[in-house]
Amino acid sequence: MIRRLTPYIIVILTFCIVPQLQFGKAMRYISAAAKSDPGYPDDVAYGVNKFSKVTVRELPSGLTRFFLPGNTSVRRVQLSGSFNDWTTQQGLMTRTDSGWVSDIKLEPGIYAYKFIVNGRWTRDLENNLKEADGFGDYNSIYFRYNYTFRLPGNQSARRISVAGSFNNWNANELVMTFKNDHWEKQLYLHEGSHLYRFMIDGRWTVDPSNPTQAKYKSEAVSVLSLGETATFKLNGFTNAQNVYVAGSFNDWNPNSTRLKKTAKGWALSIILPKGNYEYKFIADGQWMTDPGNPHSSVTDDNHNSFMSVAPNHTFVLKGYNNAREVRLAGDMNNWNPTGYTLVHEGNEWHISMRLKPGKYRYKFVVDGQWILDPGNKQREQNEYGTGNSVLWIAN
Questions:
Q1: Is the preceding omega at residue 19 within 30 degrees of 0, hence cis?
Q2: pLDDT tens per residue across span 230-241
């Protein structure tokens, strides 16, 4: 029986541009059996590993090494987890004189895993982070780090910690370690904007190495933004007093993210997590889609502009040059027939998106007619007997 992860609840942060930053309360990962697909943990705000004895570590090569100590007399050990779709056929580990090892490539994030020892599933007993697997047992949890907080000097300090919006300002949790000439703390930190401060022997202080600051409860805090740069541009409207952008990235707040006036109109660059976003401009109170962006989507009968930050897949439909419009519908938008609008260039229609690992069923809608993707041979039958195209996104 495959041991899969009880999925996590998504941690939602409100990402807005400085200085009008607004943040929701960050949460630790917790079980939520109704959320996401099994085996693919949802996003969490942050994470730190807790080992009794380190059995998972990062190698200089960039690979991550999993180690199962002992068990040298067994015949076969496999590594299975959310990173390989909980395989029972692959993931063979290599025997050493002290145990079993497996080196794999992981992107920063949270992963669930188990060892399969001679066909018997077991969690990593040296790993103190675990999560119920839905079968009366536990999966082990590992965070691959992507950020290090550093504070120079303060050699005489007795205790320094870092806290922020990502951990509900808990100053007792992320205690830093002094190394050479600075204090540091490694962790996994989700992409987006975060407020933070250091606590030095009971006294709060901003990060002296970070010039970007904001106000939190009337006190100065440092601002850290992780992700990709997204640029919003609205040409014209030079007589407008204010132009804002609102979308799924800032909870559709119409007054938080103001564009800057340029010679040709308005523009603003902000850092966003990788993903797909809907948005609109608000010029002097008037909402509008982006006239410079041909991609759009419809949610709850609202027509919005669509953009993808760091897309990892492009849907392409060749031909159909006489079609008035082509849209995409599938698991990624609950099969909304108004779907995502593709752009026609040359002899093809296309749209790029950021998709999480897993399986997606989809179809194109050409002038209202549903069709399979002729460029994709992977298909499966549906309840209407017309079939769906199938796409797998690997980790």
A1: yes
A2: 999 999 999 999
Name the residue among 151, 147, 171, 146 with its Cα closest to residue 161: 171
- Domains in the chain with CATH codes: 147-226 (2.60.40.10), 227-292 (2.60.40.10), 311-395 (2.60.40.10)
Identify the band that residue 395 occupies on the pLDDT scale cut at 50, 70 and 90.
Answer: low
* Residue appearing with tokens 């085996």: 39
Contact 186, 147 (CB under 8 A): yes
d(CA 173, CA 24) in angstroms, rounded, equals 19
Cα separation, 111 vs 312, in Å, equals 20
* Predicted pLDDT of residue 41: 55
Q: SS3 for 320?
A: coil
Closest CA to 2 of 59, 111, 58, 78: 78
Q: What is the pLDDT of residues 101-147, one digit of tens each?
A: 999 999 899 999 999 999 999 999 999 999 999 889 999 999 999 99
Which stretch of 31-35, 72-76, 90-94, 374-378 has the lowest confidence by average pLDDT? Answer: 31-35
CA triple 202-206-209, angle to 5 deg: 130
Residue 277 tokens read as: 């976003």
